[in-house]
Predict the structure.
Amino acid sequence: MRGASKLPSDLQSTPTSQPGFRSLLSLAKQSIVYVKVSGLYRMSNCLASTFDDLQPIVQVMASEIYNQIIWGSDWPHTG
C-alpha cells in the first residue's frame, strides 16, 4: 500500500480506495493473511519522519484488522 504522496492524483484524497486495499483487508479479516507494517519510508514521499500520508491506511488497519497486523523493521536495509 502506498501513502497519498505516492498515489495518482485521483486517489490522493482517498488512499484507502487504492487498488487492492479492500481485498487485503478482506483476506486479513478471514485470517488468511497477516499484514506487516514496516518500511514506511518506502511507501511515502513525505520527508518528515511522521509519514502523515499513511495515517488513513494505518488507522483503518488498526481498527478493522488489529489482530492481523505485525510491525517489523526493515533491518538490515537492502537499498
The radius of gyration is 13 Å.
